[in-house]
Every structure is written in C-alpha cells, then in structure tokens.
Amino acid sequence: MSKRTAIWWIRRDLRLRENQALHAALDHANKIIPLFILDSGLLDSPYVGPKRVSFLFDGLQKLDHELRQRGGQLIVRSGNPAHELSAVVQETAADVIFAEEDFSPYARRRDGHVSQLLPLMLLPGLVVHPPGLIRKKNGGPYTVFTPFSKVWKALPLPQQGDLLPAPGHIDVPHDLTSLTIPQGESDTIPHNFPAGESEARRRLSQFVSGPEAAVYSYAQSRNTPGVNGTSQLSPYLRFGMISARETAEAAVRAIDNAPSGAARDGAEVWLNELIWREFYVNILYHFPHVRGANYNPKYDNVQWINDSKQLRAWQEGRTGYPIVDAAMRQLVQSGWMHNRTRMISASFLVKDLLIDWRLGEQWFMQHLIDGDPAANNGGWQWTAGTGTDAAPYFRIFNPITQSKKFDSRGIYIRRWLPELGNVPDKNIHEPWLMSREDQIKSGCIIGRDYPAPIVEHAAARERTLSVYKSATG
Known about the structure:
Elements: E1 5-10, H1 20-28, E2 31-38, H2 40-43, H3 50-68, E3 75-78, H4 81-92, E4 96-100, H5 105-117, E5 120-123, H6 145-154, H7 197-208, H8 218-221, H9 234-238, H10 244-256, H11 261-286, H12 308-316, H13 322-334, H14 339-352, H15 357-367, H16 373-384, H17 399-406, H18 411-416, H19 436-442, H20 457-472
Parallel strand pairs: 1-2, 1-4, 2-3, 4-5
C-alpha cells in the first residue's frame, strides 16, 4: 500500500468497536487522524445543556485514552468544521475524510457544505438501517410506527460475527497540534452515567446476559420508575459510545436465547424501543420542518396559554403533582429521566397547562444527557398529538392515576421529593388531601413545605379538549 493519510472525523461515534467510518479509514490509509472539532454552532445552541456537554467531554477523554493505548491520540480543534478540516488536510496531505453520517437538519447542512469543499465520505452507523432504506411501496416514507417496524425487522440484521472489532493499532502523525480536551464543570458531571465505550458495553452486557437478565423482565419493569428496569443506554447511543448495530444484535440474540415466552416478550419490547429511535430519525430526515413546527399543520392554531409562572413551576418541580415534580427534579439533578415519567411530565405541560410543546422540548434538550433532536422531538409531538404516529389529542394522561399505577408505593416520588418522605402511602399521590393533622404529623404542610396543585386536572383536561377542538374545527 502506498503511504496515505485519512482523517476520521468523529462526531457522534465515540467508539472503536463497530465503527464503519474508522474501519474505512484504516482500510484506505497507513496513517489515521482521529479528529474531533469543537463546533460552536452546536456547543452554543440554545438546545445544548451543560450536563450533556460534560458527558461528551468525558467521552472524548475516554476515547483519547483508548487511542493512546493503540499508539495514537485524539486530535482536537475548535472552530468552523469546514475551516478546521481544510487546515488539517493542508497540514497532513490527507486525501479523504471519513465520517459517520448524521441526519439532523444542522448535520446535513454542515456535511453538504464540507462535501462541496473537501473529499468527504459518509458511512453508515448512526442507525441500523439508514433513512431512505425503509419506504412504502409507493416510495414514500412511513409515518406510522408499526408498519415501519415490520419492514425494519424484515431487513437483514447484524449477527455477532458481523460486528467490526476495535483495531489493535492506530498510527497517528505525532507532529499535529491539538487542543487540550475540555473538562466539564464539576457540578455538571453526571456521575450516574460514566462516559465511554467500556461503560456502554458493560451496561449492555449486564442488561442482556444470562437467563435472569433484566431485558427479559423489560416488558413489565420498563414502566416502573422506582426500579432499575431499563438499559439506561440512551446517553451512550446518543454519542455513539456504543453502536446501534451492536445493541440491535444483542436484542435479537436475547430474543433467540429467551428462556420462556414471557422473557422473549421482554426482549422483543426492548428491540421495539430501539426501532422507535430509528423511526424518529427517519421522520426528522424526511420531514426536517418538525424541528420547529408541528408535523401536522392542522394543530398550528392551538391557542397556547404559555403562562410563565406555571412554566417555571413545571421546570422546577413545583406543580403540586408529586409524580410530575419527581420527574422534573430527576431531570434537572441527574440529567436523565425515566421514559414513563417523560411522558407523564410532558403531558402535564402540554395538556394540563396548555404550554407549547416546543418550550418543553427545549427544556428537555437543555438538561438531558441523552437529549437527541430526533427522539426528543418525536416524543414531544407524540404527547402533544401533533406528530406523525401521535397519540390523539384527547388522550390526556391523568397524573394521579399514572402515579398510582406506576409508582404505587411512592418509591420514585420519595427518592426525588424528600419533603414527602414521611407522607403515608395513601396520600403520597395526592398529598393535598391530607388532613391538617396528617400534614403536621408527616412534616409536610401543603403550601409551605410542598405546593398545592397549580391546576385542577379535571378542569384543565376539559379546557384542553375545548382548545384543541376549536383549533381543528
């Protein structure tokens, strides 16, 4: 092989295993430049939050460590991607740039601009089946999940032997200048989610391995926020610290090895959750306007109230509805939220408070370490009833019944709302119904130690039904 140099432009693929862009670079060149660009267009976005940025920086540190063990190092630059890539091409005489394709509107604009100036090669990897591969017979994209998932499952899926191994050695030019990898502020580091490929793969293995693996009870436990019943891999998938193909392969293997029918059901439900992620990537790819607008324009006339005080109460976990407040405090404190409570808290903002879903979408993106533009937008539009495969607008979560059903003993509530720690089980979901005597006994005076409800759910529900009905004729 003649001496060649290739740039591996790292964006959302902070891993060495099952990385098609990296392996394409290794197949092409003798020397590889693992390059990460600190892009102000992303880092200064109003949708970016400090916890997610700290998680990213920690992931870059871990990736650099893995590269150094293989004779290389991570090269970090800062600035406009096209400008920085041009500079590195000139410095190294690299003849091609390999990168994993991304599908957000910003990523597509960025990559389109770079490809006009430089030899950019985009490789699969963000999802198992790239957008455009799954289409209806008439060539159009699917906008309903179930038929999309059937076609997705019918396409070839990776086997364990298909997964690309991590390379043993990476030869990186040692005369390249690199910025020091930034570190997040100590109070923004999500300690419950250590970054890196090793941690991601450890979590995956723990979740799917053995006949008692959590994946086999996933169908039952995934809706209970007080237990650790989910994989908690979403932050790692967000930054590609583990690949979509590796998780899908693990899910299929768990289905095949399930010790019982019920266990198989659990693994199949988890696979469906992975497919939901790909469904929303497809929606964002084919309908990029959803990033700032309703997918379904018939809801454009919904008259949101957007009360700023109620928005702030929701953001700070002071609505007076314990399941909602626990969810919002978990979000702000930990940078993560259980999926069931994401739906409950989102429904409360949109359907109880009549606050525009876009304000909730942005708040989530500012705090979630797994904040993903496709999945987050899809979830919010589903809740608001404005999206593709959306819940009908008249489906409104009752926060009290949801709380009683999915956190019956108040384990989750008490974990995040310590002021309710001594409230009896019978009152934990509706503490405002406690007698004055019980409030004193539990050390929780409603209106002082914990707020009274900021709206009455039944009345708020009727108001929302009326507003939506008026908007849609």
